[in-house]
Design a protein that fits this description.
- Strand 4 and strand 5 form a beta hairpin.
- The protein has one domain.
- The model has no long low-confidence stretch (mean pLDDT about 85).
- By secondary structure, the chain is an alpha+beta fold.
Length: about 120
Amino acid sequence: MPSSSPKKIKLNPLQAKTLALLQVLAKDSDSSLPIPDSEDIRITRLPHAHGNHVHVGAFVVSAKDTSGLGNPSVWTALARKGLVRDNWNEDIVITSEGLALSTGLEDKFMSVSDH
């Protein structure tokens, strides 16, 4: 019997940016909480624009790069792909699959905050 290979998940650029932001938020104790008996993480606070940028954990991101956080289509796609839980509009939970998936953007559009 042939072995099954891991499912390849394709993300469009906005979905990838949004997932990368969620991954950073999941590592920030001011923005997330671990879920007991699970590898999933609950996002407790989404960042808000501060001028033309947004603070995401220890990073600063251009506000335009965070537009997916307010886009229901992005959330629906991420949920359909198993990267966030389906009830994202009530309780934002990034799944272990979402935490583990490399977007390739980990260091591309964020810089360390100077304030």
